[in-house]
């Protein structure tokens, strides 16, 4: 039986160079890792030199015995009101597809785009052609393209996410349940989304706080994993603590400590329905 592997997002260690970040993740016992644009990934350089940049990162991951589970390309203006700004970001995404293929990632996560000054409905409407174009750019590859419903984006609720999925056939979801928990959205409300989930990010959170300590968080990790398993999900579970403290009530927690606590909670929850004995 295929099992859900447990990964760690390198964004947890954005304060470190990439080599030190992935080395830290490996020393915490992880064998799977997510990467994302930001301090660890210069997306403009990756677009200009896709093979060379991908080769450098692959060699680094191989040195630490890490397998890549996702890259998050943070391009929040693909649905901007300004056509020139939209075009610039969509063109950049198209130029990054060869990099992603060379890197060997199974998929790319993107934002559906943020809410712009003309409101959520217009922002969501412009996200549709943008995501259709992204899917078209990746259609000759094996890459899955997922969007993450997140705060400040055009899809903050399960209902908004489902509208986007209906409008863009072939699109999938990267589920970060903390964004729903922050809003007081409960498990039964996200149930219709689960069949569309292709990647999962997990950190403890509670209503009004997008990140908190394991002891204060209200995320029911065993129930979430059971729901995912029942829906047929067998992808990665990425522990994703972040250093954007203060954003929507993100607490300044001990990243290493909370990463380990969440890793162990995921291992324990997974063991209840997984008969194999995988490493992280």
Count every beta strand, where a strand is a DSSP E run of 2 or more residues: 8
The overall pLDDT, averaged over residues, is: 95
Instruction: Please name the CATH architecture.
Output: Alpha-Beta Barrel
Strand order within the widest beta sheet? 1-2-3-4-5-6-7-8
Which geometry do the CA atoms define?
Answer: globular
Broad CATH class: Alpha Beta
Order of helical and strand elements: EHEHHEHEHEHEHHEHEH
Q: Identify low-pLDDT runs.
A: none
Question: What's the N-to-C terminus distance?
Answer: 16 Å
User: How many whole angstroms does the radius of gyration measure?
Assistant: 18 Å
Amount of beta strand:
5-15%
Please outline the major beta sheet: 8 strands, parallel, barrel
Could you name the CATH topology?
Answer: TIM Barrel
Write the CATH homologous superfamily. Divalent-metal-dependent TIM barrel enzymes
Helix content: 40-55%
Q: Which structural category do the helix and sheet elements fall into?
A: alpha/beta
Number of helices: 10
Please give the domain count: 1
Comma- or semicolon-separated keywords:
single chain, 280 residues, alpha/beta, TIM Barrel, eight-stranded parallel barrel, 10 helices, 8 strands, globular
């Amino acid at each position: 039986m295929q099992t859900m592997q447990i990964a760690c997002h390198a964004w947890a260690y954005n304060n470190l160079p990439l080599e030190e970040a992935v080395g830290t993740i490996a020393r915490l016992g992880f064998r799977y890792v997510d990467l994302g644009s930001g301090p660890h990934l210069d997306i403009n350089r990756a677009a200009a030199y896709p093979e060379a940049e991908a080769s450098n990162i692959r060699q680094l991951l191989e040195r630490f015995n890490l397998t890549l589970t996702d890259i998050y390309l943070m391009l929040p203006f693909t649905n901007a009101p300004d056509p020139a700004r939209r075009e610039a970001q969509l063109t950049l995404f198209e130029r990054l597809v060869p990099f992603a293929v060379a890197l060997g990632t199974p998929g790319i996560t993107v934002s559906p785009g943020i809410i712009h000054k003309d409101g959520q409905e217009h922002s969501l409407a412009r996200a549709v052609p943008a995501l259709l174009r992204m899917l078209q750019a990746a259609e000759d590859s094996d890459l899955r393209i997922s969007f993450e419903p997140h705060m400040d984006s055009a899809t903050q609720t399960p209902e908004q996410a489902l509208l986007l999925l209906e409008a863009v056939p072939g699109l999938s979801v990267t589920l970060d349940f903390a964004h729903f928990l922050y809003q007081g959205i409960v498990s039964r409300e996200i149930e219709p989304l689960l069949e569309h989930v292709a990647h999962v990010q997990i950190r403890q959170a509670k209503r009004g706080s997008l990140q908190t300590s394991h002891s204060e968080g209200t995320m029911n990790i065993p129930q979430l994993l059971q729901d995912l398993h029942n829906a047929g999900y067998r992808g990665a579970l990425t522990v994703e603590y972040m250093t954007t403290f203060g954003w929507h009530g993100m607490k300044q927690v001990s990243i290493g400590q909370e990463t380990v606590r969440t890793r162990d909670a995921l291992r324990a929850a997974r063991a209840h329905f997984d008969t194999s004995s995988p490493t992280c």
